[in-house]
């Protein structure tokens, strides 16, 4: 029978901080994950740990060919081409449907080859291929997906009409009509999942960096006393805001996944009441949540790497791997900067509809509803007078509402100016991205993330014992994110004078200090088991040096000479034998 209790963590140097925590980390686990999800995750972790396939020697460097062998998949998604298209409408691969017979998949030229397909390499037997669908009457029905066989599963040899390696070309390849798939619509879901993937990388990096910072001692007020580096204000300021961001994104990604599921259910049930509106909003959210998640993780993992000093650079501690693993999140399923244009266009379309047709701004998932009151919001100003006023998440939330409204109006004005100067719509929109539409899209998604976190912290269903620490995390995330928009806040006169910036900065430092003693318990909530984390300096017991030494000494052939030692020793120059020739 499965033990339904949250397991205790091993004792060690981190106990000092765990005893200082203001909340029960086990209660937080149950609240964040839910008991069933927690138990399922632990079951998966144990299964992986007990499977010989995942057995590794500490510090083992797995050769790239072995990694490919272990990680091969039998399916893949074939969407991107060698000549990357900015719009799915001009995707070049063609499928022609011959009535009552089959589909024929064809790549017109090498530029239409499916490219950037990481799983394609040597072992994939099938692919989901996106192609333009043409019927016998020569009418193009747009982009559709097809499950296409690539190789013989028994021999792994390419099928006739398929040229396949890390790319894939189809030459009039015949595919039975039963393999016809659904039309394009899953990319928004993919971007939502990528946001979650980036968050997982960030959580792993924070677990390593904060546990290391709590256990690592360096310098102190006297020559005989050293203190944990987590006690230093600079270390807190570098790491704890990213911890707050991780909690904000944890709540946000779950909420948008539920939005996406609601949208998918509506499609399956053919409920047309608001499916189109849901689809547009999900698209806008997905196009901006991926930049928010992947860029936050990118910056956060790098900060974690540097905050651990040289140990953070050491390969066995995994921070380099996490940084590398997260990096493609910024570009696949669409480059972040390009995707943000989709979100800003969505927001501008609402403002245009309201001004032209008097449409009420109200969306299915309520991410734009506050824009209906934009004129009143734009009259508001920053009113906090003390640091205590600022450490309430309602303060940055109100500022974000003003910020989005201001950037929306400024972006529209800039767009109209570009058009009035003679630029066509394409050129006008291109010239509105920097400082306007791009900033608008980022402010919108940051506001949405903060809004949902704020709602969680004020919800009566949130356990009372957890609310105080969650409110601090929410306020810190809001203020820290808002601080990147200081210039705009002053530009639009929401802030004036020195006081607002000083209060926000002091509030950020105050919250970092208040959360310092909770930081270890907060990463305990997010952390997987030591086996999954696989980082000597991130282990739950905090015995960083013991684990480092053990990992080094257990490495394969660590005490042996290299295989090429004779080459090094033979023909070795004798000291003093080399003389300058000039």
UniProtKB/TrEMBL annotation:
<dbReference type="GO" id="GO:0055088">
    <property type="term" value="P:lipid homeostasis"/>
</dbReference>
<dbReference type="Pfam" id="PF22924">
    <property type="entry name" value="ACOX_C_alpha1"/>
</dbReference>
<comment type="similarity">
    <text>Belongs to the acyl-CoA oxidase family.</text>
</comment>
<feature type="active site" description="Proton acceptor">
    <location>
        <position position="333"/>
    </location>
</feature>
<dbReference type="GO" id="GO:0033540">
    <property type="term" value="P:fatty acid beta-oxidation using acyl-CoA oxidase"/>
</dbReference>
<keyword id="KW-0276">Fatty acid metabolism</keyword>
<feature type="domain" description="Acyl-CoA oxidase C-alpha1">
    <location>
        <begin position="185"/>
        <end position="348"/>
    </location>
</feature>
<keyword id="KW-0285">Flavoprotein</keyword>
<feature type="binding site">
    <location>
        <position position="118"/>
    </location>
    <ligand>
        <name>FAD</name>
    </ligand>
</feature>
<dbReference type="GO" id="GO:0016402">
    <property type="term" value="F:pristanoyl-CoA oxidase activity"/>
</dbReference>
<dbReference type="GO" id="GO:0005504">
    <property type="term" value="F:fatty acid binding"/>
</dbReference>
<dbReference type="GO" id="GO:0005777">
    <property type="term" value="C:peroxisome"/>
</dbReference>
<dbReference type="GO" id="GO:0071949">
    <property type="term" value="F:FAD binding"/>
</dbReference>
<dbReference type="InterPro" id="IPR046373">
    <property type="entry name" value="Acyl-CoA_Oxase/DH_mid-dom_sf"/>
</dbReference>
<dbReference type="InterPro" id="IPR002655">
    <property type="entry name" value="Acyl-CoA_oxidase_C"/>
</dbReference>
<keyword id="KW-0443">Lipid metabolism</keyword>
<dbReference type="InterPro" id="IPR036250">
    <property type="entry name" value="AcylCo_DH-like_C"/>
</dbReference>
<keyword id="KW-0560">Oxidoreductase</keyword>
<protein>
    <recommendedName>
        <fullName>Acyl-coenzyme A oxidase</fullName>
    </recommendedName>
</protein>
<dbReference type="InterPro" id="IPR012258">
    <property type="entry name" value="Acyl-CoA_oxidase"/>
</dbReference>
<dbReference type="InterPro" id="IPR055060">
    <property type="entry name" value="ACOX_C_alpha1"/>
</dbReference>
<keyword id="KW-0274">FAD</keyword>
<comment type="pathway">
    <text>Lipid metabolism; peroxisomal fatty acid beta-oxidation.</text>
</comment>
<comment type="function">
    <text>Oxidizes the CoA-esters of 2-methyl-branched fatty acids.</text>
</comment>
<dbReference type="Pfam" id="PF01756">
    <property type="entry name" value="ACOX"/>
</dbReference>
<feature type="domain" description="Acyl-CoA oxidase C-terminal">
    <location>
        <begin position="394"/>
        <end position="572"/>
    </location>
</feature>
<dbReference type="InterPro" id="IPR009100">
    <property type="entry name" value="AcylCoA_DH/oxidase_NM_dom_sf"/>
</dbReference>
<keyword id="KW-0576">Peroxisome</keyword>
